[in-house]
Amino acid sequence: MQTIKLKRGLDIPFEGQAAETLGSVRRPEVFHVVPDQFAGITPKLDVKVGDRVKARESG
Fold first, then answer.
1. 7-56: per-residue pLDDT in tens?
2. What is the C-alpha to C-alpha distance for residues 46 and 40, in angstroms, rounded to an integer?
3. Measured between alpha carbons, how far is 55 from 15 in angstroms, rounded to an integer?
């Protein structure tokens, strides 16, 4: 996948107007974020070695 970085924005000429209707979607119960998919973000852990954490069963 190619990453394109814009510094001053990009104007795309569109004809007409956007529809003023909103759709609805079901909210997911579980979601995840993959930091590798975001350029320039360094993941940081909120726990230290020896901290106790709770594990939750997925599914």
1. 787 788 888 888 888 888 888 888 887 878 888 878 787 888 899 888 77
2. 19
3. 51
The residues near 59 (Cβ < 8 Å, ≥ 6 apart) are: none
> How far is it, in rounded angstroms, from Cα 26 to Cα 47?
32
CA 41 to chain CA mean position, Å = 12
What is the sign of the dihedral through the CA atoms of 32, 33, 37 and 43? Answer: negative
Burial letters 18-41, b for 16+ CB under 10 A, else e: eeeeeeeeeeeeeeeeeeeeeeee
Q: Is 35 strand, coil or helix?
A: helix
